[in-house]
Please model this.
Amino acid sequence: MNRCPPLRPTSRILTERTLTVLACLVALVCALPYGGVVVAALAESSDTLAHLADTVLGRYIGTTLVLVVLVALGTFALGTGAAWLVIMTEFPGRRILEIALVIPLAFPAYVLAYAYTHLLDHPGIVQSTLRDITGWGPRDYWFPEIRSLGGAAAMLVLVFYPYVYLLSRAAFVGQSATTFYAARALGRSPISAFLTVSLPMARPAIAAGVLLATMETIADFGTVSYFGIQTFATGIYTSWFSMADRAAAAQLALGLLSFALLLSFLERSSRGRARYHGGKRKEVMARMQLTGGVKWLTVGLCVIPVLFGVVIPVVALLSMAIGSEQDLFSRRYIAFTRNSFTLAVVAAGVTVAAAVLLGSFNRMVPGRLSQGTVYVGRIGYAVPGGVIAVGLMVPFAAFDNALDAWMRQTFDISTGLLFTGSIWVLVGAYMIRFLAAAIGAFEGGISAVSTNIDAASRVLGQGVWGTLRRVHLPLLTPSLLTAALIVFVDVMKELPATLIMRPFNFDTLAVQAHRLAADERLEGAAVPSLVIAAIGLIPVILLCRQVALRRR
Model:
């Protein structure tokens, strides 16, 4: 006699369906700006694109590519070189520098741009002192221009090289010493063995770090805007606000989106290849003891990134802040701080909740659909904030206008702009932009939870939501708090999306710093910049603790 399969509890079916629906809704929200950019760009006539090609498109492409190449080379050299030195050699202060090399990651690149402009520009401290000492006039000497493509690349390299440093350091730690010793036994010098053995084995991790740095480079707006560098990021903002040309902004955003997705694909491919090169450490290599001039040269090479990426900017900003007339405890600055914290707290909560939904869907209802929703959620990290802002503003503005027209015609009532320029659409942009970081933290925590625990929870009568609420969330509390902290700090630093989408009279610390710097009031810009940098130190300190715990 054939038996019918046991019926699944209706409540469990409903909860799985609810989780599926909610996860798919999050994925649709994440995909909305990309669809908005594509539709808005393709809906416009080709005349706009032809005009862009004849005027600024070539310049945007050229400067963006040059900037990406310079930052890629700079972060590769600084990050990889510093990682190899602190892992493979022994020198004075190595333990301190091993941690300090991560700290520049706390600073937004535009904060360094303000500090170095104050120091190196023509009326700055360095050139003024040089003229006082030598008696030279303005045209009697040559000095490198900080507000240039090279200056912008230098600021971005100083901020983004820790991506390469952290990943390459982890790769070098994971390598077995036997291969390095074999190269040395075959007559290779330490440098030659590094170039021919250690470096190729760490190539996937290094490539992933470089691609992360380049993705952040194309997303940067504050630095290139302040230095007057015309890239895709500044072109989108100029087209949207200065020229009120929404078609040009959408088509530029589509071009930048394509480039960002290409970099995301390359980073994902590189990360996938890195799995096969990690291996297990079979033998720990003793660090090479450096002596004489080589020892102090190594110390200098590791001190330079920390000196120029942390010490000098902080000293410059502090000197600027002390001489400014900005009162951090005034009503205006309290409002800026409150707005920044409000956005950051709400966005962190929404983003972590979205990450939990997508991650739990992938864990409890595995399949192509769940994997696809997680993939869509991850894409936002590679997409610049300006692109997400344009992609959200276009459909929401169209909806607001259509609804207002229908209400006027039907009820003679004007609804105005319900979504455009609201805090919730801005929070949605933050969620899309930083969801990948929260998903990564969730997956890092859930990977340590055995699937047997899930099975035991189901046997004890818990459904999807019961397992998530009573089992997963208590175990994942540290990971989720870390994710919330990372998103919180990223939102505090975010500039392009905030500039485009913020509600009227709802300025943040980042917007205030940008406004003052654009007006050449660098002393005033130092005050909010220092606050942003200080908040950015919080997750970096946590990261430094992990680096200290994972020392070889």
In short: Strands lie at 89-90, 288-289. The chain is about 75% helix and 0% strand.
